[in-house]
Amino acid sequence: PALRRAAPALRRAAPALRRAAPLCAAAPALLACRGLATGPASGGAVSDEMLEKLGTLSTQALVDGLWVMGWPPAMVEGARGLKPGQKCKGRAITLRMVPQRPDIAADKPAGEISPEYEAFELCGPKEVLCISSVGPWESVGGDIKFLRLKQLGLGGLVTDGSVRDTDEILSYGFPCFSHSTTAKQGPAAMQPWECNGVIELGQTNPVVVRPGDAIIGDQDGVVVVPAAAAEKVYEIAHFRETVEGIIKEELVKNPGPPGKYYPFKPPIKPESPLGKLLDSKGVKYYSTRAAPAPRRSTPARFGSGRRQLSTAPPTMRAVVIRENGPAESLKYETGFPTPSLADGQVLVKNEYTGINFIDTYFRKGGPAYTQQLPFVSGQEGGGTIVDVTPKAAAAGLAAGQRVAYSVLGTYCEYTAVPAAKVVQVPDGVGLEQAVACMTQGFTAHYLTNHAHAGLVKPGEWMLIHGVGGGTCQWAAQMAKLKGYKVIGTCPKGKEGVDGATACDELIVTDTIAGTPYEDYSSVDIVGKVMEVTNGEGVKAVIDGIGASTVDISLDSLARRGIFVTFGNASGAVPAFPPIRLIKKSLFMTRPKMLDYVSTREELMMRADEVFGWIASGDLKVGIDKTFDLEDAVAGHQYLEAGKSKGKLLYKI
Q1: Percent helix, strand and coil across the chain, each to the nearest 5
Q2: DSSP E strands: which ranges in 34-171?
Q3: Where does 455-514 show beta strands of DSSP type E?
Q4: Residue 39 and residue 30: Cα distance in Å, rounded?
Q5: E strand or H helix that includes residue 332
Q6: For 585, phi and psi rounded to 5 degrees?
Q7: Closest-CA residue to 94 (of 227, 206, 195)
Q8: Are strands 461-464 and 538-543 parallel, antiparallel or unpaired?
Q9: Whole-angstrom Cα Rg for the chain
Q10: For residues 638 and 359, is the Cβ–Cβ distance under 8 A?
Q11: What is the dihedral of CA 56, 153, 209, 80, to 10 degrees?
């Protein structure tokens, strides 16, 4: 019966339906476009970590950041905290109000499925509800409606209208920013119409808000940070806030007119008072103005014609050596300049960095281990690429790749690394394991494969000192994988490594308290070596101990054997006349890793074999202890006290 009654109307509607058919066929695509236009930003999302970072900055700094990037004004005019001192941060959930009209009131979903309650249920501690009002004095809600927001633990409420039942809302505890308070009723003037569409906030100069944008509020007001630009805004705003803090500190210390330093606009000239002040504080500064396009006759250079910005903040956490000395010379700093990139480099956001004996040599300083002060310590790290230059991209590197590398300056959040030094970390290899490889692993690889110049053959004996930890724990395993027979030395308390290294023979010595090496005089090592080898001696000695073992190593060698000395744990090997080698026509070498990864091909040859062993389970990576970066001093003290039974790392 209902269909018969509707038939005349359907016949009348037929021509219109036929005309609408093409639109119906295209409906899915149209809906997708419509969703993209009105819904959350597709160009980025605000992570919880980024939200926390943005919340540490002032709204004024965020406005500056958007201004530098060329975005339109982003402060919600008229939205003020309901009480002094309120702050909020969260991702936007939007609700649009429209003027009251009887047909709209009739057509709007009612009750629990009303758009306003749909928006409420999307809210939580990391969301800010943004409600656009039709007028500054119209009420967007009161105590009964907003009780639900209290129950949900709302991160904040922002509106260009007003709220009522003020005392009750204040007691609910969530931050509230509104034009004012009012006694008026909302339904008489407006109706909730749309949840999570694009809205405008502000009665005179409205600001666009998309769902998912970051909403930051403080005593000065509320700022909308577009999700697609949040990371860049943070970088610029954080830099500007850092500079303003330095200016204020200087003016407190040396009173004078602020105009000497402030306000500042990019670019900051090095010869200016502000440039000199920042240089004195060790703060990196650069132009945030778009660079001029090069003349046609000038070859293009990396960065020309674009804003001179990185995805990293201008300063970072780092462990810096400003004067050579003991472990206490390692200084943890939070405002060290982030390195800039040259073409052919990538910027790596480090997750781990390794601790090695060579780091202690550079920390102490000396003829062979000199770096210009101040410098960031460390020489191996790993993490994720966050910025890529054109030449590095042409080499196949891209943002987001997991990588490890070995260059100087890794005890920090960000490191600029030449593309030729970067090794991508394959699936099946943990980042901690990969970082551990870059110095100790690859050192062990060249020691057991190439530094001996082929003077020892598979099936012949090697003596490897200090297999209880670090590089030589790796070397013993690799020597076995290559078919050599291995005699290892280690101190009491570290005998358990024998199972991991699979040494054929293990010589256990006494310890010397507080040192990174054992008491090699406590055991007749040469006698035991000769006993094991039937009086012939070993064809190669791998020795990272130095002064305490040089005599033992030379006396343990077979005819035409080679002494490979690569470390100075007990002090450097003292000079001796070459005539000492004549007794058995011995060889000696003092290698360094840079000469054994001198080409990209050689580096990748070592990486492929070492990572392959790790992935297959043939090579055990013993990570003894991981320290937080701020505990850098403790990491060096632990290493130099001889406590390590494997690799030591800092977690960034």
Answers
A1: 35, 25, 40
A2: 80-81, 88-99, 127-132, 156-159, 162-163
A3: 461-464, 485-491, 505-511
A4: 14
A5: strand 330-337
A6: 50, 55
A7: 195
A8: parallel
A9: 34
A10: no
A11: -70
Indicate the SS3 state at residue 449: helix
CB neighbours of residue 42 within 10 Å: 12
pLDDT at 295 over 50: no
Angle between helices 632-640 and 357-364 (to 10 degrees): 110
State the pTM of this model: 0.53
Burial class (CB in 10 A: 0-12, 13-18, 19+), 497: buried
| Residue 44 identity (one-letter amino acid) | G
- How does pLDDT run across 47-86, given as a tens digit for each residue? 998 999 999 999 999 998 888 777 888 999 989 999 988 9
User: From CA 74, how far away is CA 68, in angstroms rounded?
Assistant: 12
Span 304-314, pLDDT tens digits = 333 334 457 88
pLDDT recorded at residue 333 = 94
The two three-digit tokens of residue 110, written as one number: 């009612």
Alpha-carbon span 68 to 21, nearest angstrom: 48
CA–CA distance, 186 with 133 (Å, rounded to integer): 9
Q: Which long-range contacts (CB under 8 A, 24 or more apart) does 585-589 make?
A: 585/559, 585/560, 586/554, 586/557, 586/560, 586/561, 586/562, 587/453, 587/455, 587/560, 587/561, 587/562, 587/563, 588/562, 588/563, 589/451, 589/452, 589/453, 589/562, 589/563, 589/564, 589/565
- Residue 491: closest CA among 468, 515, 470, 514: 468
Distance of CA 23 to the CA centre of its chain: 48
Written as one letter, the residue type at 607 is A
What CA–CA distance (Å, rounded) separates 213 from 435?
A: 36
